[in-house]
Amino acid sequence: MDARRVSRMVIDPKVRQVGFVTPGASSEPMKHIIESSSMASSSSELTPSGNSLSPVMIPPPRHAIPVPVPSPLRRPSIGDNMPLGSYNPSDSLLGASPTISPSSRNDDDNPYSGIPSVDLSDEFSPRWIDRTNSGTISNTKADDFGHKLPQLASSFPFSSNLTAVSMVKMPLPRRGAGEVETNHSMSSKPLKEKTSKAERRALQEAQRAAKAASKETGGDKQAVAFGEGANPNAKQAKSAKPPPQKKDGAPGASSGATSEKKGVDRPPEKERKKDVPAPRMQFDDTQRVEKAKRRALVKPTETMNRVELFRHLPQYVHGAQLPALESKFFEVDQMHPHPAVYRVGLQYLTGDISGGNARCVAMLMAFQEAIKDYTIPLEKVLIRDLTAKINSYVSFLITCRPLSISMGNAIKFLKARIAKLSVTLSESEAKAALQSDISRFINEKIVLADKVIVRHAVTKIRDGDVLLTYGSSCVVEMILCYAHELGKQFRVVVVDSRPKLEGQALLRRLLAKGLSCTYIHINAISYIMHEVTRVFLGASSVLSNGTVYSRVGTACVAMVAHAFHVPVLICCEAYKFHERVQLDSICSNELGDPDALSKVHGRKDLNHLENWANNEKLQLLNLTYDATPSDYVSMIVTDYGMVPPTSVPVIVREYLREHLLI
Amino acid sequence: MLRPSASFILDQRESLSSPPPNLAPPATMAPKPPIQAGSGAGYYAARAEHHAVSSHWLAQAQAAVDGGPAKPGLSESHGDRHRDRENASFSVIDEFNFWRKKPDLAEAVAAIMALAAVIRTSEATTMMELEIELKKASDTLKSWDTTSISLSAGCDLFMRHVTRTSALEYEDFDAAKARLIERGERFGEISLRARKTIAMLSQDFIFDGCTILVHGFSRVVLEVLRLAASSGKLFRVFCTEGRPDKTGLRLSTELVGLGIPVKLLIDSAVAYNIDEVDMVFVGADGVVESGGIINMMGTYQIALVAHSMNKPVYVAAESYKFARLYPLDQKDLAPALRSVDFGVPVPTAVEVETSARDYTPPQYLTLLFTDLGVLTPSVVSDELIQLYL
C-alpha cells in the first residue's frame, strides 16, 4: 500500500495552521524559549552576538546531540544537577556533597585539575575532570608534561601550536582535556555551521592559544607541585565551583580566549545541560564506585555473587547499613543530615515506607522540616548553600535506597524553586516560601492529582465488572474504594507475587471496606484473566515512549491481559512522568535483597538455597521494577485526563516544565 | 435537496414517544459525563424516511421552538434585565435551526455558527456574563441532542477555542468581545471550509485504477470522491448497503450521478470482496481521544477485515468531531439506538441489537484526514490535549 501512495508530502505546516490555533497558544512555547534563553544568558554577561544564532530562534535541541560521554557541562551548584531517580544515584553522591573539603577530593586525582580553564567546559565543571580521570594514565601523562612543559614554555612562549598538536595526538582512553575538547566541539557544532570561515578560523586560533596557555601554566603548576607538594592555586582551581573570574592563574591570552569562547558556547551548553540526562552511575566502573564509596556516609557491603547482566546496578547486602546508620544517629557529624531526613532514610532502608507516592511525600516532608530548621551559615548565599544541603540529603537518601523517578522529579522541582528564589527575600521569607511550595507540590501534584485520577478512572468501571489489580498501588486502591462507595457492583481480583506479597495488605483493606475479592498469585494469572474485564495497574513512572516502569510483574500482567484482549489502565500521576526512554528493564533497575528469594516464610523444609552465597555458580536476582512496553497499555489515567500511551511525550513536553516552575 | 444532519432526536421525540419495547436495558452501561444516555430515542431511526424530509424539518423546528424557551427562561431568571426580554426573540435553537436548514451543513457547524451568533447578539456587559451566556447556549444546544458526538464536541471545541486565552487580558470589554466574535467567526469559517480542506488533502491518496470501499453515507467522503472524480481520477467504489438505513444506496446514487463506477455490496459481502479493494474510506461520527473513531455500525468489522488483509483504512473527519471520550471497548459508549426493520415480524422474545454505531480502535486505522492535516491516530490525542489542557 505504501508504494501506491503517490506523494508523501501531506502534512504541510501551512495546513496544520488551519486548525484551532489561537494566538496565545502559538506564542506560548516561544515565550518559554525566550525565558530559558534569557535565563541562560543572564548568568553570562557576554552574550553571543556575531557568530551565534539568537537563542530565540533555535528551539532547545531535545536530545538532538547524542552524548555518549558523561556530560561535562554540569555545574554542581545550580538546581539541575541532581539525581533523577534511581538510575543515576552516583551523580550527587560524587559531585554534590558540600561537606567534603576540596583538599580531600583531589589528592590522588588528576594533575590537570590544577590547570585553570583548559577549556570552557572544564571551567564549568572541574568536578567532572576529577571524576572521570583515570588516575594512572593521566598521572604518567602529567609527569611528561610536568617535566617537559616548563622548559618548553619558558623557551617558546608562543609555542602554542606545538603543544596543541601533542594534545591532539593523545591516546583516546585518556579522558582528560582531550575529551573535553571533543565534547566542546560537539556542543558548539550547531553554531559553527553558521559561522563564516574566517570566524571559524579565529575561533580555532583562540582555542589553540587557550589550550597552549593553559598547558603552560598547568605545567608550571605541576613543576611547583613536584617541588613542594600542595599548591594552593591548584587547589582553588579544583574546588567545586570557582566562578570564572577568580581563575587568576591563567595568563591574559588564555582568559581572553576562554571568555570569547564562552560567549560563543554558553547558551547551547546551558540548554544541553538541561536536556541531556546525567550519566548514570555504572557500578561496574570500579574507579567511580571507589570514589562514591569514599563520600558515602555508610559503607554498604557488596554482595558476593553479583548477577552478570546487572553489574552496573548497585548490589549491596541488604540491611547491612542499618546498624551502622542507627549507631550514627546521635552522632554530631558535619556530614550528618537533618534528623528528619535521617529518619526518612532509615524508614526507606527498613522498608517501612514504600510506594512511589509515600516515599516522595515522606521525603518532601522531611525536606520541609529541614528547611524550617535551616539557617544560612556565615558568608554563604541561601540559594547555593541550601541547594548543596539538599544535595547532601539526597545522596544520603540514595545510600538508603535508590531514588524513584517521582522523587527525582520532586527534587528537581524543589531545586528549581530554590534557584528561583529572589535574592531580596529575607531568610525567613525564603524559608516560608519554600515550605509553602513544598506543601503545594504535595497537594497539587499528589493529593489532588490522585483525586482527579480517581474521578476519571471510576467512569470506566461498570456494574458487573471484574477488575484485576497487581501488587498494591495506592491510586488503584482509592479508585476501587471510590467505585464501591458509588455503589457500583464489581468484583476485584488481587494478584500478588513473592517475595513482597504487598497484595495481601491491599486485600485486607479492600475486604475491610466490604468489596468482594479474589486473591491469586501471579502464577495463576492466565487462568483468571479470561473472566476479567478491566486491569488497573499503578506505575512507578511512565516514560516518554509510553513505557510503564513499575513493580516487577506488571509487564507480565499487562501482557497476559493484552493477549486476552482485556483493557489495561495505568493509573499514574503526571509528576511521575519522565522524558527518558527505556526499552528494557535491564539498563536501569533496582535490585532487591536476593535473600528474600531464597527464604520462604513458614516453610522450613524449603531450605535448598540455604547457603547459596557460598556457591559461586549461583546468582539470585531479585529485580524490583520492570518496563511494560506501551503496546500492552490501553490507556493511561493521569491528572490531565485519560490519554493513550502515545500522548505521554505531549504531556511531558507541555506540562512537566511548567511543573517545575509552578 | 435538503439533507438532514446526523441528529434525529427531536424527530423521534415527536414520533415515538416511547422507546421500542425490546431495547436492551441501558443498565449495564456506565453513564458517561459528557453524554447522557438518558433519551431512548433513536439516533438513526428516521433515516429511512429521508425522502420526506421537508415536513420533518418543519416539525423539528417547531419542536425546537416549543422546547427552546424553557431553557432560556432559566437563564433569564438568573437576574437579567428586561433588555434580555426584548431580545428574547433571539434563541440559540432558532439560530441553530436556521443554519441547519442549509444543505450540506453539518450540525456541529450549525451549532458553531449559532454560538458565534450568540456572542454577536449578546448584550452582556462583562466578560463573565458573556461567558455564562455562551455556556448556557452551548448547554442548550448539547441537550438538544445528547447522543450526537459531533454536536457536543463542536460546542466544546468552540467554547474552548473562543474563550481559551483568558478574557481578562483585555482591559476593554468591547475589544475583548470583538476579539471573541472574530475568533468565533474564524472558527466557523474553518469548520465550513473543513470538508474542502479534507478533500484536497486526501487527493494524494487516491490513485488511478484504485478500488475504494466505502461504508455509510459520509458527506466528507462524498466530497473527497467528488473532487477526485472531477479532477479526472479513474477509480471505482464499492458501497456497502448500510443496513438498516440504506445509506449505501443513497451514496451509490450520488456517486453514479458523478459518473463514478459503483458496485453495491450487502454488508456481509465485505470480506468476500476485500481482496479487490485497495483502500477503505469511512467517515466518522466522532473521533475519540485514543485516535479511534465512532462511526456507523459495521465500521469496526470492515476495519478488522481490512486490517487482516493489510488494506489501509482511511478516515475522513473534520476536526470539530474530536471528542474527549476514551472508550475502552465497544460497550463503553453512550449507546445511540435505532429501531431495526427486518422486513418480517420478529417474535418479541428475540432480542435485537439496536445500537447504531460502533467503536473502531486506533490500531485498525491507517490515517485520519482532517482539516488539521493528515494525522496518524495517535496525533488526535495530542491535538486534544493541546486544546483542552
Automatic annotation (TrEMBL), chain B:
UniProt GO cellular component terms: cytosol; eukaryotic translation initiation factor 2B complex
Protein name: Translation initiation factor eIF2B subunit alpha
Domain of life: Eukaryota
Keyword terms of this UniProt record: Cytoplasm, Initiation factor, Protein biosynthesis
Biased composition (Basic and acidic residues): 77-86
Family: Belongs to the eIF-2B alpha/beta/delta subunits family.
GO biological process: translational initiation
Main location: cytoplasm
Keyword presence, Cytoplasm: yes
